[in-house]
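Task: sequence in, structure out. Protein: O-methyltransferase.
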Amino acid sequence: MTTAASLAFAEDLHPEDDHAASARAHGERLGATPVSPGAGAALSFLAASVSAKAVAEIGTGAGVSGLYLLRGMAPDGVLTSVDFEAEHQRLAREAFAAAGIAPQRFRLITGSALEVLPRLIDHGYDLVFVDGDKVEYGEYLDEALRLVRPGGVIVFDNALWHDRVADPAQRDPQTTAIRDLITRVRNEESLRSLLIPLGDGLLAVQVAG
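Result:
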């Protein structure tokens, strides 16, 4: 079995640059906990693996995950990111600008994800990254399945939820919703899924092509 030391080694394999580290500090100050460096590297890898030109993100935070996604996307790729907090998106915009990312490469939409997502184009995205309200993960999956193209990938953050998902005694609404999500994608024949134990866990789901 993988030890804590090995997991730490995997997390530290790709050191974070100054731009992501600065965005991380802003996010933590606001209470918008960002993806870990290891999970961020996985997002870059997944975006590159599907040659992503269009990515939708639920939960902008201070821009940490957006930076990682943009780095894995095609040079002309566009990130569409939705967040309820305008202050989060202001900091994300500053982080992207500081990293030299052209403004035409990202679109930040302030609002409730479940109100914004229905306005986005069907099958118009190569990857959808979800880091929003855990209780709504099942609804986000419904929207993401409509948004992502065949062969595209959906990624959920916090799939291990602070070690609570693996503990059957934990039955709070957030843990239960994540557990239900994992069971649903595992049992759906049209989906391939992989649970990656980096950061707080990434659940990657590929839609059959």
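The beta strands are 54-58, 78-83, 106-110, 125-130, 148-157, 191-196, 202-207.
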